[in-house]
Amino acid sequence: MKRKVKVAQYGCGKMSKYLMQYAVEKGAELVAAFDMNSAIIGKDVGEILGCGPMGVIVSPADQADRVFKSTNPDICMIATRSTMEELKEAFSVCAKNKVNAISTCEESLYPWNSSPVITKDLDALAKEYGCTLCGSGYPDLFWGTMITNLAASSARITKIKGSSSYNVEDYGIALAQGHGAGLTIAEFERQIGNYNDLSSEEIGALVEEGVYIPSYMWNQNGWLCSRMGLTVVSQTQKCIPHTYDKDLHSETLGMTIKAGDATGMSAIVTTETAEGITLETECIGKVYAPEEFDKNQWTLYGEPETTIIVNRPATVELTCATIVNRLPQLIDAEPGYISTDKLPYSQYMVKPIHEYVKSL
Fold first, then answer.
1. Neighbours of 175 (CB within 10 A)
2. Whole-angstrom distance, CA of residue 278 vs CA of residue 31
3. Partner of 203 for a Cys bridge, out of 66, 186, 198, 244, CB 3.0 to 4.6 A?
4. Residue-wise pLDDT tens digits, 76-134
């Protein structure tokens, strides 16, 4: 591709600073930006990036259709919410304007097993208009391609066990409450743990109906099975409360969590496959005690047994860099909702983005 890749940014909060910065540093041309926050709308994106004016003003999200028609971006980076239901409108306006789109939304990495109706509708829309939609970010590499690459050094695998932790204090009150932080154990069991004994068929039906929202690892296990060619026989999820032996203050919740009450939870997804490989993956979200920190740990059991640990990952920066490095592949991909398990392995770009694009 001879010209620069033209990029739009949808959602101009915390993540966007890194997304736009990394894309521009890799030689992309930023042509549009959108948000719903009146405090951000009207700003030059240079103010968000902490540099001089760049000549791109943040527009209201509801004007995306009009702005896309005048700027014709090749791709849009979406950094807004965490579910496909919340992403449907942004993905749709991109597709209808033939703009490829990639999202930081955790569910969007592999939404086929959690929001199948929405994903099929978006897939059809993207194919109709000839563009590609997908999700990426930290899970794409640190829960995905890093694990499948590691698997390629195994002679035999019987089980894949993964765990990733995060401090709910960093992500707002809604997420903290969703993880049961501050509840008594009895309250936790009534409000969150009440689905733990459901069968694979029962929980799968509730997920498809949108009654039950599974954890990020539900999608990740689907991604891993798809990438590795595994056939899912059953999949279940259990939510287990975490506690601490001392009182723990939460700034996000505005309360002190009493010793023995829930500081958060583990959502453990177990997937059995026809090939005999079990996946047991866990995401841990809680109010951290002083000595705790983010950790990503995976073990492959079999021959040989191998463990990889990443301590204190810079999740935001890693998410944004992963997405920017995926841009050429997304532009070159076939039309539709193409989750990254179907794309080539990502790579670090030593040249400008447009030099890696073949289709434009």
1. 17
2. 46
3. 198
4. 999 987 789 989 999 999 999 999 999 998 899 999 999 999 999 999 999 999 999 99
Q: How many Å apart are CA 310 and CA 245, to the nearest integer?
A: 26
Residue-wise over 207-220: b if at least 16 C-beta within 10 A, else e? Answer: beeeebebbbbbbb
Residue given tokens 């951290």 in the structure block: 288
Topology of domain 6-138+316-356, CATH: Rossmann fold (3.40.50)
Instruction: Give 155-303's CATH code, choosing from 3.30.360, 2.60.120, 3.10.129, 3.30.980.
Output: 3.30.360
Nearest to 91 by CA among 115, 70, 118: 118
Distance CA(52)–CA(46), nearest Å, equals 5
Distance CA 356, CA 216 (A): 30
Query: pTM for this structure?
Result: 0.91
Q: How many residues in the chain?
A: 360
Q: Both tokens of residue 27? A: 């030689």
In this structure, the number of other CB atoms found within 10 A of the CB of residue 292 comes to: 15
Question: Residue 286's beta-bridge partner residues?
Answer: 167, 264
Domain ranges (residues) in the chain? 6-138+316-356, 155-303
Beta-carbon contacts of residue 113 (< 8 Å; ≥ 6 apart): 207, 218, 219, 222, 235
Query: Cα(228)–Cα(174) distance, rounded to whole angstroms?
Result: 34
DSSP state at residue 42: T
Asked if 121 contacts 149 with a C-beta cutoff of 8 angstroms, the reply is: no
* Cβ neighbourhood burial of 243 (10 Å; 0-12, 13-18, 19+): middle
Q: CA 206 to CA 65: how far, in whole Å?
A: 34
The span from the CA of 200 to the CA of 270, in Å, is 10
Complete DSSP assignment for 292-310: ---EEEEEEEEES-EEEEE
